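Task 17 of the worksheet. Students: predict the tertiary structure of the chain below and write it out as structure tokens. Keep your answer in the requested format; marks are given for formatting as well as content.
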Amino acid sequence: MTGVQTCALPIYIAETPPTKEELKAIYEKSGLPLTKLFNTSGMKYRELGLKDKLKGMSEDEMLSLLASDGMLIKRPIAYDGEKATIGFKEENFESVWA
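Model answer:
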């Protein structure tokens, strides 16, 4: 990536997951569906059988679940209060943060 400079403080989501309120703000700023915040390739996601369960869950239930276990959250998350990206796709990251 060229031309992108950042100053960020890392937060280890697996150890210190964002709160429900923080997750809601991140997902709203990302423009993505809430289900995209889930780490679908993670062991915890598979153990809980979330692929089928998420369809019947409310937004509040999904946010509570994400906030309860950082291993369920897709990483990395970049968020500055105005914009957010979830996961890392270079072209998406550059378009949001350049």
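Marker's comment: DSSP finds five helices and two strands in the chain. Residues 53 and 69 are 16 Å apart (CA to CA).
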